[in-house]
Amino acid sequence: MQHHVSKRRFAMGLSSLDKIIALQRNPANIRNLCILAHVDHGKTTLADCLVATNGIISSRLAGKLRYLDSREDEQIRGITMKSSAISLHYRNGDQEYLLNLIDSPGHVDFSSEVSTAVRLCDGAIVVVDAVEGVCPQTQAVLRQAWLENIRPVLVINKIDRLIVELKLTSQEAYAHLQKILEQVNAVTGTLFTSKVLKERAEEDEEEEEKKKDSKTLSGDQVYDWSARLEEADDSQLYFSPDQGNVVFASATDGWGFSIQQFAQIYSQKMGIKAEVLLKTLWGDFYLNAKAKKIMKGAQAKGKKQLFVQLVLDNIWSLYDAVVTRRDKEKVEKVVTSLGVKLLARDLRHSDPKVLLSAICSQWLPVSQAVLLMVCEKLPSPLEIAAARVEKLMSVGARRFDSLPEQTQELKRAFLQCSSGANDPLIVFVSKMFAVDTKALPQNRQRPLTHEEMAQRRDLARQRHADKHTALWNKSAVQVLSIYYSISLSGQMESLTLKDSKPEEEEEHQTFIAFARVFSGVAKKGQRVFVLGPKYDPAQALSMLPEGVSASGCVSEVPHLSCCTMESLYLLMGRELEELEEVPVGNVLGIGGLEVSVLKSATLSTSPACPPFIPLNFEATPIVRVAIEPKHPSEMPKLVRGMRLLNQADPCAEVLIQETGEHVLVTAGEVHLQRCLDDLRDRFAKIEISASKPIIPFRETVVRPPKVDMVNEDLGKQHKIAIIHQVKEGRSSATLHVDSGGLVTLTTPNRLATVSIRAMPLPQVTSLLERSAELIRTLEQINMSLREGKSLDISHRTLEAIIGLKTQLEILLQGRKWRNAVDRVWAFGPRRIGPNILLNSVEGYQRPSVWQCLGRVVKAGEAGAQVIRDLDNSIVSGFQLATLAGPMCEEPLMGVCFSVEKWDIQSPASKVEGSSETLEEGATAGPIQARRRPEAASADCYGPVSGQLIAAMKEACRHAFQAQPQRLMVAMYTCEIMATADVLGRVYGVLGKREGRVLHEEMKEGTDMFIIKAVLPVAESFGFADEFRKKTSGLASPQLVFSHWEVISSDPYWVPTTEEEYLHFGEKADSANQSLKYMNAVRRRKGLYVEEKIVEHAEKQRTLGKNK
């Protein structure tokens, strides 16, 4: 059936298309919404129920068809992998609404698709499973909705599981639903609190600055954090059934309700006002039958709450009659009391769920409850918040009020949703998606009208009659010749068709942009500016003439290009419908942008429009594989296919490594599998072979350990012995390593000497990783200053740089790190990494990396702060050393290299015998450092520079090896929900794969345990499959990249003490995890691996009889 479904075409009726086009012009009645939830909580099933209201699919197939899962692998796996949009028409009384619904994935690997959907919406339906409650991905999607300032409403789905699976009573179910609401509100409350406190802190900082300026700082002030929280308005923030933003549902059985519906029903039956019932149906209220009054305190008095008595009991009794007991008499009573009409086949059906679905879908249709809530509670495009507009337009470190005036005026166009002729067009493209060219409306076969069919029929008859008479009139020879000519021409035709087919198939994927109009009207064939993420409207406005349009192409402005919107489409799930124009506030598809837009972009007719802020991606791409074609001749097809895949997937990354390998980086195993399938079947259309996943590692150094491998204290003498043991064989004519780990290296031409020490960075690594973009900005500023260019730095950027410097000063405390932050020479690798190069050269005062913070240099220091020649060679050597460490050529992390001596001799002054021992040269260091190396300036890019880079790199590597080395492994956080009976097996699988459980807790009201663990990425492949097999599908893990962790074991460790010999044996051949990983990486990279294949081979003796 599913194969048939995927081929099924739905051609929209002209009347419904015209209706939607008419509704697009009224932004007040448009609702742009997405469905968000954890994986398998019922998003697509709910979407099916909503789609069925428009007659696009049968209501009987809703939930089984999964209409918006149009890919074959989505249907097979049963999970959504991409965001799909569909436009629905809904009538509520005399009001008609247009709902642009986007169904999004729940699997953590595809969370980037959620980000693309959320950006285009004004509201979201958050779906929560009534049994599982709030799961990790539920928290993630609530956070994404919060970051984008969109309003959520809640659907608690799968309530039928409480009855059928957990067999709870209606009273227990009420308590359980209350807990779920509390959990969801707790997540929202946490996000709200953090936002309020952040705003409070920013305001206080501004006030303090003002007070400092006015010098009226009051003495003792008591700081009250809670004051701001109490003032903040959070009335619209939380989910509560009496506010109308919660629906209770079972999408698979087709029913759902909000409290309003029952309030209406019972107000007529009981004669109580609907407003009163609305306030009391959810909460600790009960019905006093004698007094016919609603009273408070049901729990204290042991009474049934109104919600249980009037709502849940009815649903429970219906399930009891239809599903549990199958009591026909009771069913008939229920059907007559509800006034529901049933078909005879439903009553006779062997599956009770069919009967239940038939009753519920008429009594409490889920689509009615959800659509009503969406129209009443979610905002229209006209109600877009000013704060959201400002946030969208404040790209990078710029504040909204620092943008040019013309740009700030665009805020009005956003808020008013203006679609006048003079209003600027602003469109945001959140992703590009590929569709089959044959599926485009202009290429789709149009159904023939009756007249056309009759005309074609007459023509065919006429042709047939003519051929028949011609054949009779000719001789038999002529008949044969005609026959042969026809057959030959037929063969030739088929040959030409066969030959031409591959050419047609070449270009069969077309890219459509998934976008939304935020201002103006998008028209087919319109020229627009494409604004890159680094585009600066202030710079462009100063360079462009006033009133410039996108029709004249602009090449001189950086990050600005022009393109034509060749076609506009209405997105209808699996179908597209062509449109001539799309007004403001609508979601649409745009054709013809594949050349101009890679993944996401901002389009506008006004150069004053800033690019929107980048999308917030929750998942980090971490799983990488090398890809090559089975037949090397097909390499160009693979390259083209990977380029198309990179454009079609918002999270996938495609890169070519230094080794020449084509590498695909994805968010997880399922995502990787989907990308490989797409590459094989859609984009490259060739046989490909993928390597085993390339696991990223990092190399680092740690402080010398205080205990050995058997937890015995290490004596000082023993430590020294180890250092000498490691160093032996290292010293040579140009290299010297002292006992303190200081490495001194001379270049082969004996003109330069560097002394370097490696140290582990204390607790700074994560800060440097988080601040990578800020460090890149800092590096660009410093480069401009070195080139003598004037650069306008925004106030916010300066604040961020000051904040980074302050945090580094706080973290780098102690005698060893005195003034270290001011002495930072560079960050690495690639000038932004989590390693630091320190300038400890005596007498060398080079400009600091923080020079942009103090532009005014004191007169005395101005002369001293000069960059020496070949300074860049030192930095380049450091960058190379940190990019590929000595253990297995992986990048370094958390290492500080301190340059303690750097001498340069000019070739002229180099006489015979000047190359004395390094120990003598060490005393002359400071004098030489202060000397101006004039001769070297001419040789800035000559052999001295190259030799110094190589020497610096080697010195860093040797300094690294002089310290205790460790490997760092990427870690996933793994959240598992499992029942008590499979808990042991969960721990077994985690233990086998080097996992570590952080904590476990039991979910209240269920027998489910939530286990939070960490697991190395290297051990995660096949983990989910093994997990499901071992637990019979009762537990499923969610893996999200978390952090880097040092593996405690030393890969080079050998037993040295008597206790270690006793414990580990002479060979110490028990598995060393660190060594195993290191050798695997070395083997993959083709580096030398020190291992013995066979040692002391002996003939095996058997116990069989000698013959």
Task: Put the structure in a nutshell.
This protein has 1107 residues and is α+β, with helices and mostly antiparallel strands. The protein contains 38 helices and 34 strands. The strands form seven sheets. Strands 14-13-19-10-11-18-15-16 form an eight-stranded antiparallel beta sheet. The chain has a seven-stranded mixed beta sheet with strand order 2-3-1-4-5-6-7, with helices on both faces. It has a six-stranded mixed beta sheet with strand order 25-26-27-30-29-28.
What does this structure look like?
The chain is an alpha+beta fold and 1107 residues long. It is built from 38 helices and 34 strands. Helix 3 packs across helix 17, helix 6 (136-147) crosses helix 8 (170-214) and helix 10 crosses helix 11. The protein is globular and about 100 Å long. The relative contact order is 0.07. GO terms for molecular function: GTP binding; GTPase activity; ribosome binding. Keywords: GTP-binding, Hydrolase, Nucleotide-binding, Ribosome biogenesis. One of its GO terms (biological process) is cytosolic ribosome assembly. Residues 910-929 are annotated as: Disordered.
Structure characteristics:
ribosome binding, 38 helices, disordered N terminus, Transl_B-barrel_sf, GTPase activity, 8-stranded antiparallel sheet, 40% helix, GTP binding, 1107 residues, alpha+beta, EFG_V-like
